[in-house]
Structure formats: C-alpha cells, structure tokens
UniProtKB/TrEMBL annotation:
<dbReference type="InterPro" id="IPR050305">
    <property type="entry name" value="Small_GTPase_Rab"/>
</dbReference>
<comment type="similarity">
    <text>Belongs to the small GTPase superfamily. Rab family.</text>
</comment>
<protein>
    <recommendedName>
        <fullName>small monomeric GTPase</fullName>
        <ecNumber>3.6.5.2</ecNumber>
    </recommendedName>
</protein>
<dbReference type="InterPro" id="IPR001806">
    <property type="entry name" value="Small_GTPase"/>
</dbReference>
<keyword id="KW-0653">Protein transport</keyword>
<keyword id="KW-0449">Lipoprotein</keyword>
<keyword id="KW-0342">GTP-binding</keyword>
<keyword id="KW-0460">Magnesium</keyword>
<dbReference type="GO" id="GO:0015031">
    <property type="term" value="P:protein transport"/>
</dbReference>
<dbReference type="InterPro" id="IPR027417">
    <property type="entry name" value="P-loop_NTPase"/>
</dbReference>
<dbReference type="GO" id="GO:0046872">
    <property type="term" value="F:metal ion binding"/>
</dbReference>
<keyword id="KW-0479">Metal-binding</keyword>
<keyword id="KW-0636">Prenylation</keyword>
<dbReference type="InterPro" id="IPR005225">
    <property type="entry name" value="Small_GTP-bd"/>
</dbReference>
<dbReference type="GO" id="GO:0005525">
    <property type="term" value="F:GTP binding"/>
</dbReference>
<keyword id="KW-0813">Transport</keyword>
<feature type="region of interest" description="Disordered">
    <location>
        <begin position="1"/>
        <end position="29"/>
    </location>
</feature>
Length: 252
C-alpha cells in the first residue's frame, strides 16, 4: 500500500475546506499520485505519494467532536493526541480546530483528522458547515451535567439535518471519573443510545478511560467500510464491549 504523510494545523472558522488535507479532501491537496480511487467518500491513494510532514498513512478520515459546551471535547482530543489532561480553568473553544493522529489498524495506517468544535450556541452555524464532510461523529455529554444529556436529542436532530446519512456515530458519556458529581447513570446513557441505535460508552479525559478505545473503534469501523473486505465483519458496539471486557476495565 502506498503511504502518505500527515499535515497538522488549524482551520479558519469561516472556511470548512481550509486546512483539511485528508479523506475526500485529500484528493485536492497534498497528493501527488493520480491513481486515486474514491470509495464512499474515502480516498485511497493508488500509488506512492509524498507530502511535507513526517507521518505516513494509507487512508484518512475526518472525525468531528460535538456536544454542549463544557462536556470535555477539547480535553478528550488532547488526551487522545498528547496523553495529557487539561486541568485548571476551562477555556471554551472558539470556532473550530483540528489535530491529526495516525493509528495502525490491522496493519493499515489510518489517519484521523479530528475536528474539535465549539459547543457554544453562538458557534453553531460555523459547526454546521463542517458536518457534511465528516465521516464520523463523536457526540459527547457530561455525566455530571443533566442538561448536556437532555440536549443529546437536539444534537441528534442537528446531525440528522447536516451530516451525511451514513456517518459513523458514537455517543460518549464523558467525565466518568467524577463519581461524586455524577447525575447521569451509565444505564441512562445506554438506554438513550439503544433508543437511537448508536454505539455508546463512557469515557474520562481526566483518567484516560476508554479514550483510545473510542477512537480505535471508530477508525476500525471506517477502515472496514472503506476497504470492504468480505472476509471481515465488524460491529462497532460488539468490538467496544469485547475490548472493555478483555481489558477487565470498567464500563464507567
Ligand atoms: N472530571 C473531569 N473533568 C473534565 C473531563 N473532561 C473535561 N473536563 C473539564 O471540563 C471542562 C470543560 O472541558 P473542555 O474540554 O474544555 O470542554 P469542551 O467540550 O471542549 O467545551 P467547548 O469548547 O466550550 O465546547 C474543563 O474544566 C475540563 O478540565 C473529564 O473527563 N473529567
Ligand atoms: Mg473545547
């Protein structure tokens, strides 16, 4: 398989395509091979390609983090990308930003371009412009904030209105570490997810609980859909459940 390299950067809030070098966008930027086969909105480089930074990849996808302000989207991304937790005062995201990370999934280098959106209502129209290019959405609520859980239905309506029909979607109940402040039970999250037919797990950006698993599961699902290997079946929720069981780890 050919290899491409990642590009790291920020995007201007007013320009959905600015700084988005991957997935279906990669065909238009940072690509030197003409042999590209688009499949379900995903691009497979058909030959060797070279770009300006240091990490190679085979396929690339755009993942968006959405949910109310303060649920922990930025912290989740920082935990995944840098294995660190942003403690201290809460700095609300303005507009939209992205980070890249390449995962090796069954020998395939999968680049995730992860878009961190602003949860505040006043940035909603900016976020809407980015939905249509997203291959996957991680929808977060905060287990210590009932309103963020109650708003999930509104977010699902937005997703239905603005995202692609076949977008990979996962519901995450974040801040699972905060046992004292918890007001949303894990069972409530599970029930809601079941009602809407979306995979679910609880996470903690503070402790790292299930963060890698959430992104790996999404990357596996996207890779599976993209490469369409008939010998391989993949069910996201089953994978998540199995991984949590085998790690002996808590579901919350
Ligand atoms: N206890 C705990 N606190 C968390 C966790 N994740 C985030 N926080 C805290 O929650 C606050 C909000 O986190 P952010 O990641 O900035 O929230 P956000 O969803 O990006 O908010 P917007 O950018 O406004 O949309 C910060 O004070 C974090 O320290 C977590 O897993 N556990
Ligand atoms: Mg943020």
């Amino acid at each position: 398989m050919s290899r491409k390299k990642t590009v790291k950067g920020k995007a201007a809030a007013s320009s959905p395509s600015a700084g988005s070098p991957t997935g279906k966008w990669a065909g238009r930027t940072a690509r030197s091979s003409p042999a590209i086969v688009p499949l379900n909105g995903v691009v497979h480089p058909g030959g060797p390609a070279v770009s300006s930074s240091s990490e190679f990849y085979d396929i690339a996808f755009k993942v968006m983090l959405v949910g109310d302000s303060g649920v922990g989207k930025t912290c989740l991304l920082v935990r995944f990308k840098d294995a660190a937790f942003l403690a201290g005062s809460f700095i609300s995201t303005v507009g939209i930003d992205f980070r890249n990370k390449v995962l090796t999934i069954d020998g395939v280098k999968v680049k995730l371009q992860i878009w961190d959106t602003a949860g505040q209502e006043r940035f909603r129209s900016v976020t809407h412009a980015y939905y249509r290019d997203a291959h996957a959405l991680l929808l977060l609520y905060d287990v210590t904030n009932k309103a963020s859980f109650d708003n999930i239905q509104t977010w699902l309506t937005e997703i239905h209105d603005y995202a692609q029909q076949d977008v990979v979607l996962m519901l995450l109940g974040n801040k699972a570490d905060a046992a004292q402040e918890r007001v949303v039970k894990r069972e409530d999250g599970e029930r809601l997810a079941k009602e809407f037919g979306v995979p679910f797990m609880e996470t903690s950006a503070r402790s790292g609980l299930n963060i890698d698993l959430a992104f790996t599961a999404v990357a596996k699902e996207l890779k599976h859909r993209s490469l369409k290997d008939p010998s391989e079946t993949f069910k996201l929720q089953e994978y998540v459940d199995k991984e949590m069981k085998s790690s002996g780890c808590c579901r919350a």
